[in-house]
């Protein structure tokens, strides 16, 4: 068994194969080796409590970096056919007659990573469904604030038209769903 020891603020104090501090979390041998051999540095990571599950801790980078596979590439967000579309983790944008509903299905580890960094703004552009160069409107989400809610309602923004939603690439999956028009 391998452990990460940390203080009350979440700063990592050490890694070891025994428990000798008050605050610790079990980790994998791979992460233990990364810290032991200097591939990762204590000051670049910290322990953050899960924003949804009290007491659950995550090891996260002190600077938020989109890493891993790109779940959404720059361009139109993929349209899902129904409201209960198969989106396990990510952001679901529902187009209603007079508004947009943005649902938060972002996984817990990504939420924890977003919560410790600076504000993280993501822009969404509402464009013509047949010509993405015709811009109708746009809205911006601060993902650092958004992760603390289940959903938000955005009024207007050309929600009553045949549109697509365009955004920059992201490792957070996105789905655009047509609701009640």
Please give a handful of descriptors for the protein shown.
single chain; 181 residues; mainly beta; 2 domains; four-stranded antiparallel beta sheet; 3 helices; 14 strands; 12% helix
Report the structural category. mainly beta
Strand count: 14
**Which percent range describes the beta-strand content?**
35-45%
Average pLDDT over all residues: 83
* Uncertain runs: none
What general form does the structure show?
elongated
C-alpha Rg, in Å? 20 Å
Biggest sheet: strand arrangement:
7-14-8-9-12
Distance between the termini: 55 Å
The H-and-E topology, N to C, reads as EEEHEEEEEEHEEHEEE
Structure explained in plain terms:
With 181 residues, the chain is mainly beta. It folds into 2 domains: 2-61, no CATH class; 75-178, no CATH class. The protein is 12% helix and 40% strand. The chain has 3 helices and 14 strands. The protein has helices spanning 29-36, 108-116, 143-146, and strands at residues 2-6, 12-16, 24-27, 45-49, 57-61, 75-76, 79-80, 90-95, 99-105, 121-128, 135-142, 151-155, 163-167, 174-178. The strands form 4 sheets. The protein has a 5-stranded mixed β-sheet with strand order 7-14-8-9-12, with no helix packed on it. The longest helix is centred in the middle third of the chain and has 9 residues, at 108-116. It is elongated, with a radius of gyration of 20 Å. The protein starts with a strand and ends with a strand.
What's the quick description here?
By secondary structure, this protein is mainly beta.
